[in-house]
Amino acid sequence: MTIRLNGSDHVLPGPTTVLTLVDRLDLGRTDLAVAVDGAVVPRSEWADHTIPDGADVDVVTAVQGG
């Protein structure tokens, strides 16, 4: 299955949850936000939210500033 991850095509071996994707990316950060097809997925739903084939996924880190 293929998704668009932060603007680039990314191939996954099969159905994947947001949590599995974040773990696979091995970012080692807890201040992440994930949106699937433009909708933010709350962290409490990462383990249950399956990313559909062809989805547009954005993974971003929180940044302080002003």
UniProtKB/TrEMBL annotation:
<dbReference type="Pfam" id="PF02597">
    <property type="entry name" value="ThiS"/>
</dbReference>
<dbReference type="InterPro" id="IPR016155">
    <property type="entry name" value="Mopterin_synth/thiamin_S_b"/>
</dbReference>
<dbReference type="InterPro" id="IPR012675">
    <property type="entry name" value="Beta-grasp_dom_sf"/>
</dbReference>
<dbReference type="InterPro" id="IPR010035">
    <property type="entry name" value="Thi_S"/>
</dbReference>
<protein>
    <submittedName>
        <fullName>Sulfur carrier protein ThiS</fullName>
    </submittedName>
</protein>
<dbReference type="InterPro" id="IPR003749">
    <property type="entry name" value="ThiS/MoaD-like"/>
</dbReference>
